[in-house]
Amino acid sequence: MKSLRKNPEAAIAERFETAPQPLAPARWDWREVRRVLVVRLRSIGDTVLATPALHALRRFLPEARLDVLLEDWVAPLLDGFDEVDHIITVERGSTASRARVARLLRSNRYDVVYNLHGGTTSTFLTRATGARHRVGYAEYSYSRLYNHTAPHPFALWGRENLHSVHQQLGLVGWTGVPVTDPPRTRLAVTAEAALSLQAKLRAAGFDETQPLAMIHPAAAFDTKQWATVNFARITEDLEARGLAAVAISAPHEAGIVGALVEDSAAPVISLTNLSLPEVTALAARARLFVGNDSGIAHIAAAVECPSVVIFGSSNVTHWRPWTNAPAAVVREELPCQPCPGYTCAEFDAPECIRRVPVARVIKAIDEILEA
Questions:
Q1: Which residue ranges form the domains of the chain, and what is each CATH number?
Q2: What share of the chain is helix, strand, coil (3-state, %, to 5)?
């Protein structure tokens, strides 16, 4: 099964007036709000998919201080992102860091705090702010620590099968912020990242006159990782189209990219040491992204790189690319999808991702490049 999407916001936007609207009346007098904090811990994709909510808040409160709390390892992703005033970071797994951050947050005297995550750490840090208005979903654990609890996002939007962006925007929209557009994801490309990326490409032997395709063959779980040999066939197809393949991964996944280079008859540029801002710069420069469902795919979508994303166990409706650029999802439907994806409970190996044929991905590339 494959779906081609150019404007994923349109289906819901048609339900509302042209001008963006809130999802409920204001919960307090917004004229008294001067400082707002958004808590969004966890991963790359989670951070990218929070940017529409940050944009909606900035648009609604152009003069207020707007801060965001992220885990330290993912925070560089928002370098140059000018819709927040301060990025506050907490070290993953560090009790001492949480204590320091809790004291800092309380000293900042926020008027409103949104928790877009709902996990234990983010909930207690939200409570530690002492903010007058602390907002979370009623379904969150320890929901008694919020003094404003929103109903389920299905109820807010009047439909099921929502994207992660809708879930996060819903919490903001329930408090009176206009969100019904809904905004796309967005990231900035800094001049520093663009220059350092260029130097790394040059050092790797990349011909700067050639258009490139960014390939991401790694994934967090086996249920989301398409076979490396299949990506090798894709790089060969891209070479025939005149596109240079640049394969990326985190340093601990370098073996996957190494295997791709070995399996491909086409030349493949290997970059396994990029910072998150450099990944963003590469995606913005690329003619095409091809990769697994991952945070890197959401980075590509946020800079409007045309994308082909291969899905296995994940919920496509919830995690598809959220972008105005042409984007295709390629998957093999099975009755057990979607699933949590940590392991495959139905087969000896995750058939959902293994059964996606190379030919279908190449067909999606055809359609995206034509679009």
A1: 15-173 (3.40.50.2000), 191-370 (3.40.50.2000)
A2: 40, 15, 45
